[in-house]
UniProtKB/TrEMBL annotation:
Biological source species: Candidatus Uhrbacteria bacterium RIFCSPHIGHO2_02_FULL_53_13
Recorded GO MF terms: metalloendopeptidase activity
Coiled coil start-end: none
Keywords: Signal
This protein's name: M23ase beta-sheet core domain-containing protein
Length: 370
């Protein structure tokens, strides 16, 4: 039996079609609610693997909405990648689904961690983009941590033409929920950030606050708009906001959308001199230099005027008083980059990021190709 996921309008709503889907799901036994068995990651390199779509990021491509899980990329599709159960549980779904290819859903009982009361609940996990021909489990089977449940599919029918990767999401319910995206940030409340979940069980740690070079899969248009190199804390990532042609640097830890976890917001304008918007009050302005090449910059302490509507598609803190640094790579008519900081961000972290910025030029690109 094949099931189809149909996206409804621009909101990415999900309907399930197929025999038996309307029936009442068997209620799972409660014998392992307080499981003492460990929690493991679904693939070996989950901790260090590359991500394209993380929990809470907004996308508008084949599907539209806020991503409810993490996507773990596969560097070499020729490599066979085993997918394992993260904890004790029972399989509630295993089939081919439009938009995923092979999908397995398991209702899990993870150990209850006293330090994290929210961990004391059953959860369901979605393992997406598997090859159905490699399924090792079926609906009703009980599983243990680390048990292989299947193998990732390669791009094509096995993944419904999606790139080869693991879509992994966790939600607080026993029913089968196959949506990869939700229409609004509030709808993320039933989902758990995988990084948070694994953090409860001591797998991903508290996050790395040392600066690391920003390196990830980004839409080509994003790279064209922002030819920037910089270092950010290891616990951060970047969200490309196509509606504004903006970068949102956000903390990958915690609940809510990536926009709600925003730390730095980057936009641009093309001009011959520094410009300021009529929508904000400037409390102070300071000239300075930033980056490895000592780029000309100006730092503002700004605040949105009371009579101005909240900024659309931007983090909510952009409507509060905060610091913004504008900088450029050359004189004359050129591109100015606008780097705004969340008012709760440590000033030392912001300054360190500013000091390491590099604007990529044609000379830099030619050096890489030589």
């Amino acid at each position: 039996m094949k099931l189809s996921i149909v996206a409804i309008g621009v909101f990415g709503g999900i309907l399930l079609f197929g025999a038996g889907c309307s029936g009442t799901l068997e209620r799972l036994d409660r014998e392992i609610v307080d499981s003492k068995m460990p929690v493991l990651t679904p693939v070996e390199n989950y901790t260090f693997g590359a991500r394209y779509k993380r929990f809470g990021e907004f996308f508008d491509d084949r599907f539209r909405g806020y991503h409810v899980g993490d996507d773990l990329e596969v560097k070499d599709e020729k490599t066979t990648v085993a997918v394992s159960s993260i904890a004790e549980g029972r399989v509630t779904f295993a089939d081919w689904v439009e938009g995923y290819g092979g999908v397995i859903v398991i209702n899990h009982a993870a150990p209850c961690r006293e330090r994290f009361p929210e961990s004391c609940q059953r959860v369901s996990a979605v393992y997406g983009h598997l090859n159905t021909q490699t399924f090792q489990v079926h609906v009703g089977d009980d599983v243990v941590p680390g048990q292989t449940i299947g193998y990732l599919g390669v791009q094509g029918p096995q993944t419904d033409n999606e790139r080869s990767h693991l879509h992994f999401s966790i939600y607080r319910a026993e029913d089968v929920r196959l949506a990869g995206y939700v229409a609004s940030p509030t709808a993320l409340v039933d989902y758990i950030n995988p990084r948070t979940f694994f953090g409860w069980h001591g797998l991903l740690g508290g996050g790395d606050d040392d600066l690391h070079k920003l390196s990830r899969l980004t839409e080509p248009s994003g790279r064209d708009v922002f030819p920037l190199e910089m270092s950010i804390p290891g616990s951060w990532d970047v969200e490309w906001i196509s509606s504004l042609e903006a970068w949102n640097l956000y903390d990958t830890r915690g609940a809510g959308s990536a926009r709600e976890r925003s730390q730095i917001f980057i936009r641009y304008f093309d001009a011959s001199s520094f410009l300021t918007l009529q929508t904000v009050t400037i409390h102070s302005a300071t000239d300075l230099t930033v980056g490895d090449k000592h780029y000309t910059a100006r730092q503002y302490d700004i605040e949105k005027k009371p009579n101005v509507r909240n900024f659309v598609d931007q983090p909510s803190w952009r409507n509060e008083r905060h610091i913004v640094t504008d900088f450029r790579g050359e004189d004359g008519f050129t591109r100015y980059f606008v780097m705004a900081a969340n008012p709760s961000l440590d000033q030392k972290v912001y300054d360190r990021i500013l000091s390491g910025i590099h604007i990529v030029t044609e000379d830099d690109q030619s050096e890489h190709t030589d």
